[in-house]
Amino acid sequence: MAQKPSIPKGTRDFGQREMAERNYIFDTIRSVFRTYGYQQIETPAMENLSTLLGKYGDEGDKLLFRIQNSGEKAELPPEKGLRYDLTVPFARYVVQHQNEISFPFKRYQIQPVWRADRPQKGRYREFYQCDVDVIGSTSQVNELELVEMVDRVFTLLGIRVGIKVNNRKVLTGLAEICGFPERVVDITVAIDKLDKIGLESVEAEMLEKGLTADAVAVLRPVLLLSGTTSEKLAVMRGLFNGGSASGLVSATGLKGLDELEELFGFIGTAGVSQPVEIDLSLARGLNYYTGAIFEVKALDFPIGSICGGGRYDNLTGIFGLPNVSGVGISFGADRIYDVLKGLEKFPADLGSSTRLLFAVMGAEELRYVLPLAKTLREAGVSVEVYPEPGKLKKQFDYAAKKAIPFISINGSSEIEAATVNLKNLETGDQQAFPAAEMDKILEFLR
Fold first, then answer.
1. Which of 11, 245, 37 is nearest to 128 (CA)?
2. Degrees (nearest 5) of the Cα angle 26, 27, 31?
3. For 352-405, what is each residue's pLDDT tens digit?
């Protein structure tokens, strides 16, 4: 018995309609990236494990797909892995090609990544990321541009989103004022789960990691903080200046608040249509972030974050190029696809790239329309010629299934008169044009 064909869990096939929809996403994102001066690069699907390990924390390391050796090295431990994200390979690229690029270096990258995660709704083992990063500049104008690009992309796609911003220096400050500066990673990992498991479970996890009840009590009001941007910043300044229950001061936390205040000043000056807010519970689990961090969620569709990123001050240092700051953000194309699909936001005309179908009733008619099809294609019109003579109903059905808006049916009378018969399948409008008057034909097909 033949084996039933299947694909691995956490992966998906994409048919013609789906690819048209995905390319709509990619093209929209790419167009926005380019308007801000970013240019495209690509890196290999696999990297050396030494490049990947230790960059994403213990939980990230567990989700790396390792590639088994083959040939003479088959018995040795794996040396390569599929990339987990696009940022670490980007840092490796910058260091490896530092003498060939100009700083600040602005690049975008649209490629698949792989994670050995448990598949579930909105979470896949293979998925595309659309990354945009600038490296070699500490100016928060770069952070502003990321927020503006997020705003522009989702406005063009017709998705209402909420943009949340925090700063890892603020999280470091929280670890300092609660008396556990060495536990900043544990605190960050726990806080990052607040939306998923709730405050009580986050606090329980921090206690399990060794924090005291008093330390958790210092953090609790921060995680529940609400109000305007200025109100949140004012409360946090008080806490970091010794106003918490511990009485400890955090210069690092105050620096993070200064950066947030500057960034929100830029955002207010530039004007952003989608809502942007400070979320002091936002942590983002990747350990290489050192400054501003971002997370974007759809407001009208239940799914995890669809975009996120942040600043990293020394990611290239691990590859031998220290003290080069960068900031970037990643658009989760697969989740964006699910949101657009769920909200029925894809344009209706994405179903077919074909504008016109030449129906064919016989060999003579086929010979007549072939040069016409060539001329139209050279004029930029997407044209199909039905490949074999057949019943017109079958050819009309083909056009309907592919959402082709125009059909051309030409018989002996059209051939004798040297005309082209065109029909708009949406309106029913039908006209004949002299074959030599291509401008009128093109006008009808618009």
1. 11
2. 115
3. 789 999 999 999 999 999 999 999 999 999 999 999 888 999 999 999 988 899
CA atoms within a 13 Å half-sphere pointing along the CA-CB vector of 244: 26
Choose the weakest-confidence range: 18-27, 192-201, 290-299, 328-337: 192-201
Q: Which residue has the tokens 């946090």?
A: 236
Mean pLDDT across 219-234: 86
Residue of 198, 199, 200, 174 lying closest to 186 (CA atoms): 174
- pLDDT tens-place string over residues 329-351: 999 998 899 999 999 999 977 76
Q: CB neighbours (10 Å) of residue 10?
A: 17
- From CA 41, how far away is CA 83, in angstroms rounded? 15
3-state secondary structure at position 62: helix
> Quick check: 303 and 185 in contact, CB under 8 A?
no
Q: 357: phi > 0 → left, psi -120 to 50 → alpha, else beta; which?
A: beta
SS3 content of the chain, % helix, strand, coil (to 5): 45, 20, 35
pLDDT at 146 over 90: yes
CA–CA separation, 47 vs 95, rounded Å? 15
Residues 6+ away with beta carbon under 8 Å from 431? 421, 422, 444
Q: Give residue 185's pLDDT band: very low, low, confident or very high (50, 70, 90).
A: confident
430 — phi, psi (to 5°)?
-135, 130
Give the DSSP per-residue string, 124-181: -SEEEEEEEEEES---THHHHHHHHHHHHHHHHHT--EEEEEEEHHHHHHHHHHTT-G
Higher pLDDT, 88 or 35: 35
Whether residue 392 contacts residue 431, with contact meaning beta carbons closer than 8 Å, is answered with no
Which secondary structure element, helix H or strand E, spans residue 383, and what is its range?
strand 383-385
CA 145 to chain centre: 16
DSSP annotation of 296 reads: E
